[in-house]
Amino acid sequence: LEEAARALAPVPPPAALAAVLERMRALRGLGASTDLTPLPELLDAMEVATRTLLDDHPAPPDAASVFTDAARALGEMARGIADSGRVTPPAALEGVARRLLNSYTSEADVVAIASLAPDGAESVVHRGALPPQGDADPLPVELVSVGDHLVLAAESLARTDASAARDLRLFVLHRTLSTMPSRSGTGRFLLPMTNAIRSALAAGMPNSRPDAFLKLVRDCGQFLVNAGSEHDQSVLRTDRDRILSGVLGAAALSGAAHGTSSDDIVPIEQLAPDDVDAVVDIAALDYDDDIVDIATLAPDDDVVPIESLAPNAEPALPDGVPPHAAGEPSRLEAAFRTRRALARAEAAAPQPSNTDALEVPVVEIGTLLFRGARALDRIGELHAELAQLVDTGTPSAPTLRPLIEELADLIPLARDAA
Question: Which of 32, 62, 33, 34 is nearest to 49 (CA)?
Answer without folding.
Answer: 62
